[in-house]
């Protein structure tokens, strides 16, 4: 998209027109299937929201009818790619300058809309009412601004895990993203527009305006224009970012010669805004005056917000409004003010998508009959533009708001997601082990790692659809899109929240789905499941021939050996592609057995020897083929034999070669036909197969299928087993649970192994018992 003043734009309006004549799949994506609209028009920006149905490909598996057939050489199951319709929310932000052209564009591409009404909020809803009705032929139904803001805020707090951040001055990490608390209420919302509105939000529908101020963004803009002759708000902020307020403001040390010790005031505190202008006989720079004005207004707002937070016993304040808009200088001054006046007891928080709150709220008001809040929603990284850098010195063209279109897309998930009931403290749970936003060395390594793997992933995607004439073209589009995402993340690692290995993997999966590659490893999984099933009975016979203690060791070693078969790890995929005969026994010989036998494993063995059987075990499975069939199922069988019920949880959708819920049903059916222990457990509902609600190679225990969570409660689960590098190392390595847990994985990355003090194919075996 062209941007004013950007590289190669040539400046002028010619370059801006290009950004609004792009095809609908670039900005107004899937517009032809739009069903419902809402719009939020502020003083300078328009935010459009619409709901559409998206048709995309999904991979399905179906068991063959093998009755009366020799199944030795038959595939285990049938794979088909089908079309599926899902719901998506689109949010687009652009300057009011382009509203007429954008409305024309929408009208020209609108095909299937079902509504005759467009919900509208914001001051511009009155100004542009006639234009909207004329252009779109829809009746404008205006909604209350504050109600829409609060509804939108509640929605993003619930559905976007890395939505909230604190701004850190002079830190390598500009943003410190917050953990989503399961209960988002109560909170204080401070909306800084022309003036300031302070609202206490207690529940979804209970909120009240408790205060405000006429000194807000409009004051900064108006006085700034008088002082500096600068008319544009963003240009005024740019001036302020370069100014030095101490040239204009009178400080405590200017009055007292240093700190005022009696009151505990440091010498660098502002004693009088613009105080030096009354005594100095000189001209002050525009930059210094803008900075002084910004500090004066921010301090006033910060003190007011802090007083209201204290009065109502609240420790979280969310700031929004056009005064904020992700600008570093405003966030920095607001944060400083709140920290100073509250002595660190109240936190100034900002929202990654605060500019969309009104549009989201207006949309929700118009969709109340569909009850969108009954669903869970997830950000689609492939279609969202992400948060721009707040640094005015880095990529200045990205800081220029004129001529840019920001986008947010959210997909409706098939099933509602909730916390795992066994989390020790859901409010402090952080899924990811390493924050790549903080760790520059790890960030550089993993971004390079994903870049180097990209050609192979694109090749695999194209090869998975040999009968498709455009598979190569779509694979190249996927490769280019994901490459661009990686380059964005090199410059702006905070673009989609905290950058982690999980977010890099999820973004890749989103981009694959965007270009209709729903399951590139489906044929690989089909083949490996079939091969592993043929070995199942011999593995069980071998295990049953062992003594009890020797068998426990063999079961754990089998679990770990099975986990070697991970096509997402380059060290493994290279072996599997070059050595087709590489199998279960070869994987066992690769394991680097660290001293887990002397510590964690010995504790686990002692627990099995001396403790009563666990009531119910929840096992999160990882890979298809040898992993689940020869590693996980023998372990499941042993637990069942001890009298422990088992809940086996698999991904709802495909990711790499991870086993999916639908695949696990077929695999389990075939195993049950061979093994009486598994057969009777299925029949008596002692073995239950469930889906996690996830389509990721990693695991977020705060976003799991509600049905799984309910089953965990019903069966009084007292053991959780998490298997795999993505689920037990990249995520959940430090996860604290209220019951016993096992975390097992093989480290299949040399760099990570070295960092953890081991070698490639070293094993992780963590048995943890919660503190009483």
TrEMBL record:
Recorded catalytic reaction(s): these are: (R)-4'-phospho-S-sulfopantetheine + H2O = (R)-S-sulfopantetheine + phosphate; (R)-4'-phosphopantetheine sulfonate + H2O = (R)-pantetheine sulfonate + phosphate; (R)-4'-phosphopantetheine + H2O = (R)-pantetheine + phosphate
Damage-control phosphatase ARMT1-like metal-binding domain mapped to chain residues: 450-758
Entry's localization field: Cytoplasm
Q: Which Pfam families did the record assign?
A: ARMT1-like_dom, Fumble
Cofactor requirement: Mn(2+); Ni(2+)
UniProt-annotated stretches for the region Disordered: 1-20
* Keyword ATP-binding in record: yes
Main subcellular location: cytoplasm
NCBIfam families associated with the record: panK_eukar (TIGR00555)
Q: How does it assemble?
A: Homodimer. Interacts with PKM.
Role noted for this protein:
Phosphatase which shows a preference for 4'-phosphopantetheine and its oxidatively damaged forms (sulfonate or S-sulfonate), providing strong indirect evidence that the phosphatase activity pre-empts damage in the coenzyme A (CoA) pathway. Hydrolyzing excess 4'-phosphopantetheine could constitute a directed overflow mechanism to prevent its oxidation to the S-sulfonate, sulfonate, or other forms. Hydrolyzing 4'-phosphopantetheine sulfonate or S-sulfonate would forestall their conversion to inactive forms of CoA and acyl carrier protein.
Protein name per the record: 4'-phosphopantetheine phosphatase
Q: What organism is the protein native to?
A: Pipra filicauda
- Name the gene: PANK4
